[in-house]
Amino acid sequence: MIESNSVYAGLAGSSASLPKNPGSGPDGPIESAIEASMCAQPSLGESSLGWLESRGNWSRRNFIKGIIASGVAVSGVPYLASAASRPALQAGAVERLISLNVNGQTRRVDVLPNETLAMTLRYKLGLTGTKLGCDRAECGACTVLIDGVTHYSCSTLTQRVRGKEIQTVEGLESASGELHPVQQAFIDELGPQCGFCTPGQVMAAVGLLMENPDPTREEARQAMAGNICRCGNYDHYLNGIMRAAREV
Ligand code: FES
Ligand code: FES
């Protein structure tokens, strides 16, 4: 008849020395089974065990514990190897929680590695004055200043502007609430029609006047070539730039 605990019988090679209930021993079922197996092995008979037991502090219990410990060590090798390689992966990863200097303020924000500045400004920081038109560096609606230079924020990775000064249209107003001279000049010259392109036009004009405070009309036209106005109000915007240049 097959023993209900046949796995232990297999270990022992003989049922003669099987414990009645392997799970009830002081060292648990596995140790009890292995110990039973040791006793039954013909190659490790009483004379051999007696010789080993006579060697210093050796005991069957210590021997069995050594086997179990070596098994744990071997099975843990893959885990330890992966743990050793983990610091290298972390070193190559991009930190997501970063600080940005936007309009003179430090803003902490969670940024994905492939996130554009336009997305961060609009949807993480709530600065919706920066518009998204084409989202592929063609229309200029998303223009912002980075360290005083105009950039398309739809085509700038946010992770690349850490430590730089970012200025959006929301940051042009003075502390007392006055509009920037370019903003006021655009109003005076009736630049905005639908107004969608206006923030980008304003930022491009501000960038131009920072670099060239007294441009000719043709220089201004060239500088504004990257900003499309679907309403076609280019001359009004140019009038505004020339007026702002006189007043700044
Ligand atoms: S939205 Fe960036 S250039 Fe058009
Ligand atoms: S004012 Fe309408 S797109 Fe320029």
Describe the structure.
This protein is α+β, with helices and mostly antiparallel strands and 248 residues long. It has three domains: 72 residues, no CATH class; 75 residues, Roll (Ubiquitin-like (UB roll)); 67 residues, [2Fe-2S]-binding domain (DNA polymerase, domain 1). 45% of the residues lie in helices and 9% in strands. The protein contains ten helices and five strands. It has a five-stranded mixed beta sheet, with helices on both faces. The longest helix has 16 residues. The termini are far apart. The N terminus is likely disordered. Bound molecules: FE2/S2 (inorganic) cluster (2 copies).
Structure in a nutshell:
The chain has 248 residues and is of the alpha+beta class. The protein contains ten helices and five strands.
Set down the secondary structure blueprint.
Blueprint: H1 6-12, H2 28-40, H3 46-53, H4 60-75, H5 77-92, E1 97-102, E2 105-110, H6 117-124, E3 143-146, E4 149-152, E5 165-167, H7 181-188, H8 198-211, H9 217-223, H10 234-247
Parallel strand pairs: 1-5
Antiparallel strand pairs: 1-2, 3-4, 3-5
Bound molecules: FE2/S2 (inorganic) cluster (2 copies).
